[in-house]
Each structure stands twice: as structure tokens, then as C-alpha cells.
Specification:
CATH class: Alpha Beta
Largest sheet: 7 strands, mixed
Number of helices: 7
Helix content: 25-40%
Structural class: alpha/beta
Number of strands: 7
Oligomer: single chain
Number of domains: 1
Radius of gyration: 19 Å
Length: 267
Amino acid sequence: MTFFRNNKEIDTKDLKLSDYNQIWTKFCFLDETGSLSDANDPFFTIGILKLSQPYYLYSKIDYERRKRNFHDEMKFNKLSKNNLEFAKFAIGALLDARSVDFYSYSVDKDGDYFKREFFCDSWVAYEKLTLRLLKDAVLAPKEILVLIADYIPAPKEIRFEVNIKRELNNALNRLTLAGVCRFDSRSNDLLQLVDLVIGAISYDLKLATGVIKSGSKYKRQLSEFLRQGLGTDNFLNGFRNRHFNIFVDKDAKQRLPLGENEKGPST
């Protein structure tokens, strides 16, 4: 028997707290790569993992950690022969999981969109793309979200947690985001899992556009593992299925050689 009862006659805006069995509460785990941590990386990607019961995926990874006596942080930029197989296990666990959704948004920092919308400011991009991803992709009707993000040292004027919660709730005129908190990703396997996925996506974009020619074989192998698991050749045109929504801004394709840069829709 399911706890959630979907009464289609009740609109989201008419829900009350007493309608608790009509409301989905979802945890979202957010991480970024390519901009705040590395100014020389041409692509900025944010990713969000959404699930209602984090325990199941988290405990599967934790059990395997203890079984293999593996205590290292899962981080794409630290992939090596010693941790590649565990990273593949974690991504495989995500691909096999039920009722788990992943969303990401990638932009080219040298592209017109990044310069026009974010004034080449990485922190502005971080907040605005987080809001856009939450509002336009992640949030579903009758959901209230809790956002857990990786902690990144920020200038003192940055109020990420306050701004994200206030602006999203104000934009939709209802309680959509119950709270935002940032944690050091070394303390949470699901934040580390997001790092692996967005790292693989961003690395694939760099390979596809010729930003890097060969690079790390371990990073290439994990990117290929993710692509094969999803059944796609590359992420340059984005990707979408029932549980994955990977959006890549069209400016990324401007890096392709003349003749290869054909117009195509992003996801």
C-alpha cells in the first residue's frame, strides 16, 4: 500500500498541510563542476539528484564501501585505477535505482548565453541555473523539495541558501522549497555521486568538442560507462529518458569545427 494518494481533483495551489498524503516530499542533492572550482574549464555544469527515500541508494553504496573496505571520496577529478571500479559501481547503482531522477544543465562559459545572462559571473550563474533547473525541470506538481548542496567557500555577500529558497517560493507563490543546506561533499555519498555524473558529462563535452584530445583514460572510461548505460553516443545534444534529463546549451556546439556545427535541439 502506498502512502501517497494522488487525488487529481485537488490542484497543487489548493493543497493544505492536512493534505499530507497528497504531497510528495523529495530530497535533492546538488553539485557543480567546471566553474567555481576551475576558472580554466570551459564548461559549467550543475546537476541535481532527486529522490523521496535517499536511504535506499545511500545504503547500497555504503554497504559496498564496507564490503570492499573502500573509504576514499568519490570524485571525478581524482579518478585512478584504485577507485575507478567503485565509481562505476556507484553510477551503476544509480542507473539501476527506482524512483530516482537526475537533472543537469551545462553551459559554455565563452558562449553568448553565459555572457549575456550571467555577466561572466560564476556565482550569478550558480544561483540562476540552480533556480532554473529546479523550477523548469526538477519540481513536479504536488511536490515540496529539500535541497542539499555541496559546500563551496563563497564571498561573504553570497547568500545562496536564502536566495534560492526565497526566489523559488516567491516565483511559484507557494511552498516549493522547504529548506536549503550546504554540506561538505566528503560527508555524503549522494553528493559525491552527483559529482561523478556531472564530471562524466562535462568531460564528454570536452572530448566531443576537442577541448581535450585524449586526457585521462580513467575519466574517459567512466564517461563511456555512463554513456553506454544510458544508450547514447555523446552528450553534446543533451539526453533525456524517463529518469534522466541532461540539458546542454547550444553554445557548446560552436566549438565544433566548421561543417560539424549543425543546428540541433538540446534536450
